[in-house]
Amino acid sequence: DAKTTQPPSMDCAEGRAANLPCNHSTISGNEYVYWYRQIHSQGPQYIIHGLKNNETNEMASLIITEDRKSSTLILPHATLRDTAVYYCIVRVGSGNTPLVFGKGTRLSVIA
Amino acid sequence: DAGVIQSPRHEVTEMGQEVTLRCKPISGHNSLFWYRQTMMRGLELLIYFNNNVPIDDSGMPEDRFSAKMPNASFSTLKIQPSEPRDSAVYFCASRGDSSNSPLHFGNGTRLTVT
Fold first, then answer.
1. pLDDT of A109 over the 70 cut
2. What is the per-residue burial (b if ≥16 Cβ within 10 Å, else e) of A44-65?
3. CA-CA distance, A72 to A4, in Å (whole number)?
4. What is the DSSP letter of A5?
5. CA geometry: angle at A78 spanning A73 and A79, to 5°?
6. B43-97 per-position pLDDT tens digit
7. What is the DSSP letter of B59?
8. What pLDDT sits at residue B97?
């Protein structure tokens, strides 16, 4: 079972920041937060992951609360191509444990 | 890097026929995962391999499903006999041996069983 809770859908205006929340109140100390997205008709795509520090890469920023019970994925300037289902997943950082996907958030970027 | 390559991209078959889905992971990756996606159940893990050895096949729905990884560069998922309820998109993914390596997915095989 997925250990995360996400809103089923969100809208964002093109050019604005998209802030996607995720609750993971039962996260363990050795579990990382991963974000993937799935654009229609494609396989899921890795975006970013973190343990407790905020992370940023060329795609997005990940903000994790101090108690690690929730996080927010930020797409700073959303474009129409960012329309996708976004999945927040928690996973132990060691070994080859698989990712367990929940239902995700369907983000619609609107022109 | 060509990424994870799956074939065929689409497969339409009749109930009772054997179906074989193929996957070529990214070179150097030592873990391979098979997922299935449907509207009703979302993305489900079927089976995964580490260094060509099946680690967990508890997600395989029933004995009609089997998966093999004869070498590090090739895996198959076979359904025999196929049934209409097997219609779904089947994804293969691979990951390197670093514990935090991201999972790389192929573009899937859309299976339709009539």
1. yes
2. bbbbbbbeeeebeeeebbbbbe
3. 12
4. B
5. 140
6. 999 999 999 999 999 999 889 999 999 999 999 999 999 999 999 999 999 998 7
7. T
8. 78
For residue range A30-87, what is the model confidence (pLDDT) as tens digits? 899 999 999 998 999 999 999 998 999 999 999 999 999 999 999 999 999 999 999 9
Residues in CB range of B51: below 8 A, 6 or more apart = B30, B31, B72
The residues, ordered by sequence, that sit 6+ positions from B91 with a Cβ below 8 Å of its Cβ are: A43, A44, B6, B34, B35, B36, B37, B43, B105, B106, B108
Comparing CB atoms, the residue among B48, B102, B106 nearest residue A98 is B48
Rg (Cα) of chain B, in Å, rounded? 13
**Contact at CB, A99 and B108, closer than 8 angstroms:** no
* Beta carbons of B43 and A46 less than 8 Å apart: no
All residues of chain B having their beta carbon less than 8 Å from the beta carbon of residue A94 are 99
Q: What is the pLDDT of residue A1?
A: 64
Instruction: Please give, rounded to a whole number of angstroms, the shortest distance from the CA of A85 to a CA of chain B.
Output: 11
A36 CB-contact burial (10 Å; exposed 0-12 / middle 13-18 / buried 19+): buried
